[in-house]
Amino acid sequence: NNRSDWGENNTRFIDNSTYQNNGSCGTASNICPNYNKTHYMFGGSGLEFNGTNAVNISNSSSLSPTNPSTGLALEAWIYSKGNNLDWEPIICKTNQTKGSTVGYVYRLMRGTASDNNQISFGIGRQDSGLNGGAETSVPANQWTHVAGTYDGAVQRIYINGIEKALRAFTAGIPDGGTGGDLLIGKGEGCTTAFFSFNGSMDEVAIWNVSLTSEIIAKHSGYGIDRSIYGNNASRMFNTTINQSGKFQEAMEFGGRNSYVNISFDRSFNVTSSNAVTMEAWVKPGSLTDTSTIISN
């Protein structure tokens, strides 16, 4: 946000968590990303990367995975300009050298067009990762929320709050000990120093615990009940966001095994003395069979 009252400036980036893992960059021309006050998701400004610069966060114990059972989560809002010739690192941390079997790595990256612009979420060893494939494709020139979570047993990739890919992974995250700075916008140490992000980022976060699908949905703003009851969606199955809805944003369903699940809450109870109203704007793609809109 470039808050000078927090001590932020063009070469210092403040971590608002309790760990205060603040970021920095060099003072030479083009080494630091720029604060962009006209291009951001929240807070007044985002960070704009030009394909050569990055934010460096010095290694600390709070950034080094030491307890595989609690897992971790990586997330960010990204806006890629789409002219990347190679993979675009979003978050990257390792203390391994390429091909080594000692140490650890965790990273979140966006692929090239030939790789379907897919998201890759790597944990554990250098070459161990979940490539999400076409289902995790992130288009250029629009803001997208991306996240990777690991709970000690399963890796998951979320796009705009929706789970798009997963795999079982029980090897865990090895205790990496010390060493290995965290990089935002660059892949040095994870793959090669030449991998860099070209575009903007906002709300980058590294968690030392896994996050549930409901929390990821809240962070992405998808599946959120904005009434006084706050009955947010707990799971979205095969649904996507459609920006051509009645009031711009809408949910698009595929017609089969496609629905939003909201966990039970007492506010849903209807007794004989209660009145109830259900309503929705709908645009059916087909009327060949009965379609459920709301069911409890």
Description:
The structure is a single chain. By secondary structure, the chain is an all-beta fold. It is 3% helix and 33% strand. An 8-stranded antiparallel β-sheet has the order 1-2-5-14-7-8-9-10, with no helix packed on it. It has a 7-stranded antiparallel β-sheet with strand order 3-4-15-6-11-12-13. Strands 16-19 form a two-stranded antiparallel sheet. Strand 8 (105-110) and strand 9 (119-124) form a beta hairpin.
Cα shape: globular
* CA(first)-CA(last) distance: 43 Å
Written as H for each helix and E for each strand, in order along the chain, the element string is EEEEEEEEEEEEEEEHEEEE
What strand line-up does the widest sheet have? Answer: 1-2-5-14-7-8-9-10
Name the helicity range. Answer: under 10%
Sheet with most strands:
8 strands, antiparallel
Mean pLDDT: 81
Number of helices: 1
Q: Uncertain runs with pLDDT below 50, 5 residues or more?
A: none
Work out the strand percent.
Answer: 25-35%
Name the structural class: mainly beta
